[in-house]
């Protein structure tokens, strides 16, 4: 191994030093455990701010009592649609679809 590579620091894991938010998962009235998210606020500040506000409900609406509307076993769970509860709804603290607003 050459000495230059040997002295390199290991890569920093994604999300280290970023704000974290947790969500407590409940199924059929029983606590199932928490999920923790590292928000990449340095790369997507509006998305991170939107997630934080929806997670805390500070604007009067948010993720509280929303459901997992799509689960693919061994791959992923999808949640966050607190308007229609099926994946078709969206609401942002910015008043319009955040993805559409920031993609142009």
Keywords:
Cyclophilin, alpha+beta, 20% helix, two-stranded antiparallel sheet, globular
Q: What is the string of helix and strand elements?
A: HEEHEEH
CATH class of the domain at 18-88: Mainly Beta
Mean pLDDT level: 80
Which strand-content bin applies to the residues?
Answer: 25-35%
CATH fold title of the domain at 18-88: Cyclophilin
- Radius of gyration over C-alpha positions, nearest whole angstrom: 18 Å
By DSSP (H or I, 4+ residues per run), the number of helices equals 3
Largest sheet: 2 strands, antiparallel
Alpha-carbon distance between the termini?
A: 46 Å
Strand order, largest beta sheet:
1-2
- The total strand number stands at 4
Reported CATH architecture of the domain at 18-88: Beta Barrel
CATH superfamily of the domain at 18-88: Cyclophilin-like
Helix content: 10-25%
- Helix-strand category: alpha+beta
């Amino acid at each position: 191994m050459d000495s230059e590579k040997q002295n390199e620091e290991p890569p920093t894991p994604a999300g280290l030093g970023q704000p974290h938010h947790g969500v407590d998962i409940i199924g059929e009235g029983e606590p199932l455990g928490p999920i923790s998210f590292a928000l990449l606020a340095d790369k997507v500040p509006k998305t991170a701010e939107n997630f934080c506000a929806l997670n805390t409900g500070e604007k009067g609406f948010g993720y509280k009592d929303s459901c997992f509307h799509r689960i693919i076993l061994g791959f992923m769970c999808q949640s966050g649609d607190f308007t229609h509860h099926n994946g078709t709804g969206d609401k942002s603290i910015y008043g319009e679809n955040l993805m559409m607003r920031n993609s142009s």
